[in-house]
Design a protein that fits this description.
- The chain folds into 2 domains: 12-91 and 342-362, no CATH class; 105-337, 3-Layer(aba) Sandwich (Rossmann fold).
- It has 13 helices and 6 strands.
- The chain has helices at residues 16-26, 34-42, 46-54, 93-98, 121-125, 128-136, 138-145, 155-170, 180-203, 222-225, 256-274, 292-295, 318-330, and strands at residues 74-76, 79-81, 107-112, 209-214, 302-306, 311-314.
- The chain has a 4-stranded mixed β-sheet, sandwiched between helices. Strands 1-2 form a two-stranded antiparallel ribbon.
- It starts with 15 loop residues before the first helix and ends in a 32-residue tail after the last helix.
Length: 362
C-alpha cells in the first residue's frame, strides 16, 4: 500500500446524500428523491458531468476527492440494515479493520517524506488568492481543505479545531514560503501519514506489517509536471517511477535512480515471494514488522527508510501523530464512525446515496 489506506479522510464519503444532491443541482437535477436524481443524471451527456465535477470545489482544489466510496446501507422502519447481495463497503473501514475482518496477509505500507508538498502545500503557495485566504480566513477554509467540515456541524466546533491545527503547525507565523515545511507537514499528516499509520497499527494485530518511508529524492518529480521545478522533496506519487515505466518521468540507464529502482523492486519481489522483505541490499539492516508494543505507544514506531543506503529509523512523525490521535479522539471521533444521513439528508427515497442498486451500473 503506497501513500494511502482506507482510513485516510478522503477514502470514505461522510455525507454522500448531501454531496449527490448538491452535484445534481449543478446539472439542473433538483429532485431530492434518489431514483429521480439518478434518472436525471442518466439523461446528461458525460461531458456535462465531467465538466461539473471539475468545477465541484468549495475552496481552491477542495474537496479534491468529492466522490469516494460510500458505506452501503438501507433504511427500514426499524433502522438501518445491509442490502441483500454483494456490497462494496458494508461498514466503515475502521470498524472492519479494528475487528480483523479483512484478508490477514502480510502487508507493506508506507508514505513519501513530503506527501503534502503537491497536495496541497506548493500549489497553495503558488496561488496568491488561495494563500491570502488561508492567512486571513484560516478558520473558514481549512475545515473544507482538511475535510472535517461535515464532521463538526457547528461553526464554533470547527473554529476550535482549526485554531488547534494552526497553533500546532504554524504558531504565530504567517503561512508562506518560510513555512513551506509546516504547510507540507500539515497536509502530509492529515491526508496520508495518520491514516496509513492508524491502519498499519490495527492491521498489525492480525498480520505482519512492514512500514516504509521513502526519502530518496530522484532526478524526476511530479512537482515538475506542475511547474514546480525549484522545490525539492519526495512528493506524493514520486515513488511510482521506481516501480513502473512512466512517460513523463523516464529513468536514464546507469544513473543512481536506476540503481535505486532496481534495488527497491528486488525488495518488493522478495516480499511477494517470501511474505517478508528479505532482499534489503544491506544484509545487516533487517526490516522488522510493526511490534505490538509500538501500536500502543510503548516504544517509538520504526519505519524502514528507503534511500541510497536503507536503514530502520525511528518515526519522524511521533509528535505529529500524537497531535492527530488526540484531535480525533477528542474532537473528530465521528470520522471513524459511520453515521447515516449526516446533516439530515434523509430523503432520497429511503436510499443513502445515488447511484445505488441498478443505478450503480450506469
Amino acid at each position: 500500500a503506497h501513500s494511502g489506506s482506507a482510513l485516510v479522510p478522503w477514502a470514505v464519503a461522510r455525507n454522500p446524500a448531501g454531496t449527490a444532491h448538491k452535484f445534481g443541482m449543478r446539472l439542473g437535477c433538483n429532485s431530492t428523491n434518489s431514483r429521480d436524481l439518478g434518472l436525471c443524471l442518466r439523461g446528461k451527456d458525460f461531458k456535462e458531468i465531467i465538466m461539473a465535477q471539475a468545477q465541484f470545489m468549495d475552496w481552491f482544489m477542495d474537496p479534491f476527492v468529492p466522490f469516494p466510496p460510500t458505506v452501503e446501507v438501507l433504511t427500514t422502519t426499524t433502522g438501518f440494515v445491509q442490502p441483500q447481495g454483494i456490497t462494496f463497503l458494508p461498514e466503515h473501514p475502521y470498524t472492519m479493520i479494528k475487528q480483523g475482518r479483512f484478508q490477514r496477509v502480510p502487508m507493506l505500507t508506507g508514505v513519501n517524506k513530503d506527501e503534502g508538498l503537491l497536495f496541497h502545500a506548493e500549489t497553495i503557495l503558488m496561488n496568491e488568492k488561495a494563500l491570502g485566504e488561508l492567512n486571513t480566513e484560516f478558520n473558514k477554509w481549512i475545515p473544507i481543505s482538511l475535510m472535517y467540515e461535515d464532521i463538526l456541524p457547528h461553526v464554533g466546533q470547527r473554529d476550535h479545531v482549526s485554531q488547534q491545527i494552526k497553533s500546532f503547525y504554524f504558531g504565530n507565523k504567517m503561512i508562506g514560503a518560510d513555512t513551506r515545511e509546516n504547510l507540507t507537514n500539515m497536509y502530509s499528516d492529515r491526508f496520508f501519514v495518520h491514516g496509513v499509520q492508524t491502519a498499519a497499527f490495527n492491521f498489525a494485530k492480525y498480520a505482519s506489517v512492514y512500514p516504509f518511508l521513502v526519502t530518496y529524492t530522484g532526478a524526476n518529480s511530479n512537482l515538475k509536471l506542475f511547474g514546480i521545478g525549484e522545490v525539492k522533496g519526495v512528493a506524493h506519487s514520486d515513488d511510482l517511477q521506481y516501480f513502473f515505466e512512466m512517460p513523463n518521468m523516464a529513468i536514464n540507464p546507469g544513473t543512481r535512480c536506476e540503481i535505486f529502482s532496481k534495488k527497491v523492486i528486488k525488495i518488493w519481489a522478495s516480499f511477494a515471494y517470501y511474505g517478508k522483505p528479505t532482499d534489503t541490499w544491506i544484509s545487516s539492516m533487517e526490516w522488522l514488522p510493526v511490534q505490538p508494543v509500538e501500536t500502543v505507544g510503548g516504544v517509538p514506531t520504526h519505519y524502514y527508510e528507503l534511500n541510497v543506503e536503507p536503514r530502520p529509523i525511528e518515526s519522524p512523525f511521533t509528535n505529529r501523530m500524537h497531535f492527530w490521535n488526540h484531535l480525533i479522539d477528542t474532537e473528530l471521533h465521528e470520522e471513524l464512525i459511520f453515521i447515516p444521513y449526516r446533516n439530515n439528508k434523509t430523503a432520497f427515497g429511503g436510499m443513502p446515496h445515488p447511484p445505488f442498486s441498478p443505478y450503480r451500473q450506469f
